Amino acid sequence: MWAVFAIGSAVFAALTSILAKIGISGVNSNLATAIRTVVVVLMSWGMVFITGTQSGITEISRKSWLFLILSGLATGASWLCYYKALQLGEASKVVPIDKLSVVITLVLAFVFLHEQFTTKSFIGAVLITAGTLFMVL
Question: How far is it, in rounded angstroms, from Cα 122 to Cα 119?
Answer without folding.
Answer: 5
